[in-house]
Amino acid sequence: MRYIVLPGLALPLLIALAATSLANTAWMQHWQLSSLTLAILLGMAAGNLGQKFIPVSWKPGIHFAQNRLLRLGIIFYGFRLSFQQVADVGLTGLLTDLAVITSTFVGGYLIGTRWLKIDRETAMLTAVGASICGAAAVLATEPVVRGKPHQTAMAVATVVLFGTLGMFLYPLLQGMLHWPDRLMGIYTGATIHEVAQVVAAGNAMNGAVVGAAVITKLTRVMMLAPFLIVLSLFLQRHHPGQEGRPAITIPWFALLFVVMVGVNSLAVVPAGIVPTINTFDSFVLTMAMAALGVESHIGKLRGVGPRPLLLALLLFAWLVIGGVGLTRTINALVG
Description:
Shape: globular
Radius of gyration: 19 Å
Number of strands: 0
Order of helices and strands: HHHHHHHHHHHHHHHH
Strand content: under 5%
Largest sheet: none
Number of domains: 1
């Protein structure tokens, strides 16, 4: 089996190398376009323009990157976080994160499936991209909901679009809200999609804002593991298998993600090695995103229609407007 997947791994590997190189250019860094975003775009270009040149024998390797490497990347993502960061953000940030995640995901799922009549997988992937941590959350949720590549690609596209809009909008909102830096940082970190987008928006304000924003955002990222476990239990209970009984399946990669957060919190790994682990993790996730792009054919994306985009727009509006109300209310209660 290991030799079967090797030829197919070459394509996502090359795309990941190209995406990483592009992401390190000054222009891409200015616009905060990460290697993950670039990888899916390059992968889609390769998969659609060069589809007839991709041998069938490469499929196992592409699927290996799309599934196994994805789980590996999520596990090692834990080295970016620590439990100390949760303590630093305080109860206001923690409760705001919980409120944003719960309201955005549940609201997105209900609006998407009941009002917009979107399939369950697309609605969940779009909602989780808005509610937790953008592309990484979409990728981590895909195996739990058993989403298809084109559904995942659509969800990632909405993260890129509306997260980028947030980068430009939030500095304008700071002048309108006149909030203290810490509160503005909590609001920014709890409601913008991607970590890189949070950094960009915070830097456009000031150092105090970006510090609180990043810690709040990383705390939100840390909630990915318990979220996936709860989601898995929900799906097994409400969508049982053919036997008619819900078989409890635990996403073990999510538990290992928490273990890695604990390892990082205890500082048992030498500090000089952690950046290397994070670089390796970013590249593994970039390969997974490239493989996802290769499998995301335009015809399938067109078949999804405009409704996921409308759902993402509604969720973005909720994050911006509803996020103000949630942040203000929780700060007043806990403050």
